[in-house]
Amino acid sequence: MASDKDSIKNILVVALSVCLVCAIVVSGTAVSLKPEQRANKQADRSKNILIAAGLFEEGKTPVGNVQELFKEFTIKIVDLQEKRFLTDEEAKAAGINVETYDQRKASKNPALSKALPDDEDIASISRRARYSVVYMLEKQDGEVERIVLPIHGYGLWSTLYGFIALEGDLNTVAGITFYEQQETAGLGGEVENPDWKALWEGKKIYDNQHHVVLRLVKGGVDPNSPNAEHQVDALSGASLTSRGVENLVAYWLGDDGFGPLLAHMQNQQIGAI
Ligand SMILES: Cc1cc2nc3c(=O)[nH]c(=O)nc-3n(C[C@H](O)[C@H](O)[C@H](O)COP(=O)(O)O)c2cc1C
Fold this sequence. Notes:
Elements: H1 8-53, H2 66-70, E1 74-79, E2 84-85, H3 88-93, H4 103-106, E3 113-115, E4 127-129, E5 131-138, E6 144-154, E7 159-167, E8 173-180, H5 194-198, E9 215-217, E10 231-233, H6 239-252, H7 259-272
Parallel strand pairs: 9-10
Antiparallel strand pairs: 1-2, 1-5, 3-4, 5-6, 6-7, 7-8
The structure holds flavin mononucleotide (FMN).
Flavin mononucleotide binds next to α6.
């Protein structure tokens, strides 16, 4: 005769208890690791800002910690609607702390962002936050040495988040990085390949009329082409991700992004000479 221990009720109680314990352990671990995951994500984003600016070489351990290196930046808030920098007082009045401002979260808040009509939404981002944080390296006389701008836009499968750094002429690319994307590894995922990112260095974003003319070229750039300085090799076998990158650069450096502010800064620098 089967003992009480082997009854269906007992088996179910034991199985459910094991499930419950496992669920508690797994969810407890997930919850307890969340702050660490968030901190790691933030550290990776910061590292990418440093890499774009050329303050930290990819794959190498930084000299000094990331926070120390970060102190070299002057961090500013840009009002993309009014196309100008906010003063510290204005940023404070708008409730923005440069250390903690989350542009991604702001872009989901209708009070802090605008919906983009289809003809404006070339980066396929649907909404754009009104305020953006930018990171500047300045020379001793206050002139801009490099500026790092956050960029994002849709590729083939995912939104790519990254940074583009410009030299002091506010036109020549100093570096580009992507810290978050879910394109296919080996295809669109090659946006993170250091060799491909290196192709961007020295390329020019704008023509003489300050139009964004940077393009990604399928099959590779002809170095003898008169437009070669405005062209980067598209990723092979990943034309759609490449098109996404071209579009997001055009959007963020164009009229609805940082373009007017950069043009104004350029004019100011020329005026100061
Ligand atoms: C499983 C799979 C994953 C793919 N992932 C990407 C991708 O991440 N980015 C991309 O542009 N194309 C990707 N493609 C290829 C596209 O469908 C398309 O063929 C390609 O972008 C065309 O690029 P090409 O003109 O350089 O060949 C993928 C295709 C397959 C079958």
